[in-house]
Amino acid sequence: MRSSNPVFSRRGFSRDNGYAGFNAQQPQAGGPAVGTNPYAQGAGNPYATNPYAPAGTQHGAPAPARTDVMTMDDVVSRTAMTLGTVVLGAVLAWTLLPVSPTSYGLAIGAALVAFVLAIVQSFKRTPVPALIFGYAAFEGIFLGVISEMFNARWDGAPFQAVLGTMAVTGATLFMYKQRWIRVTARYARIGMTIALAFIVVMAVNLLLVVFGVAEDGGLRSMGPLGAIVGILAILIGCFFLTLNFKEIEDGIAYGAPRQEAWLAAFGLTVTLVWIYLEMLRLVAIFSGDD
Question: Which of 62, 91, 120, 205 has the most crowded CB, counting CB atoms within 10 A?
């Protein structure tokens, strides 16, 4: 099961490629039963195609005990640091950059830099905290400027969007923990198909708007159609969250290296930014033009 999240698209907790750091014979305490590692590859020898397996396991020997495995505390602490950097960048941008065309240009530039850093990190074989913090800082600048602009027209919209993002994230986590949402290969395929179709349609819509074919934002207008599209985008963000939760849960269960907690934090940050931006637009739409 390959994640839709760009952070996990090349490496990480993906079922189809296997995971180099996972131990098929000895999952962590509280994890799935022995012998059920869905990430192992090769018939008869789970480490047949795993170049990163612990020494000795290539020949079927028991894996040595490992102490560098990822824990939930690692994920939480690194996510807090990454999101904290986003918030700090947003606060500084909101405070220091007044609402103006120049600030808007800086925001677009910051968003492009953040996007490039995210792509570079996604193609790295290992997490690079400097890239992750750089992404968080530039993304924070973008969010700060955009949030200030929305607040200038729709007073209180950013605060409501933050509350909405927290509510959606909490509800998604609750439903995932209750197993009301079960992340299966079929679930991932269907969700990915919808998400990719949505992204393609939005890209086409953007081109139509830029070239003047579609007016008032097209599908991303501030009217009822825009609200429907925004709700769909938030639901897609929730889908991304469930994949993130599943990947983190499996990574912990099968003993992913501790450094992979940075990828988990990065993936959650990317998804939460997606949800916040869509929530911000949705709040503005329902707030009207006054």
Answer: 205
Contact 140, 90 (CB under 8 A): yes
Rounded Cα distance, 184 and 179, in Å:
11
Contacts with 105 (C-beta within 8 Å, 6 or more apart), sequence order: none
Element spanning 224, H or E: helix 224-253
Q: In angstroms, how far apart are the furthest CA atoms of the chain?
A: 70
Q: pTM of the entire structure? A: 0.81
Where do we find the tokens 């393609």? Answer: 200
Alpha-helix residue ranges (DSSP H) falling in 154-212: 157-177, 185-210
Place of tokens 């999952």: 27
Contacts of 18 (CB under 8 A, 6+ apart): 39, 40, 41, 49, 50
pLDDT tens for the chain, 290 residues: list them: 434 355 444 444 443 333 333 333 344 444 444 344 444 433 333 333 443 345 555 455 555 556 789 999 999 999 999 999 999 999 999 999 988 888 999 999 999 999 999 999 988 888 999 999 999 999 999 999 999 999 999 999 999 999 999 999 999 999 999 999 999 999 999 999 999 999 999 999 989 888 888 778 888 888 899 999 999 999 999 999 999 999 999 999 988 999 999 999 999 999 999 999 999 999 999 987 65
Separation CA 251–CA 162 (nearest Å): 28
**Count of alpha carbons within 13 Å of 229, Cβ hemisphere only?**
19
C-alpha distances in angstroms, 178 versus 93, 188, 248? 39, 18, 16
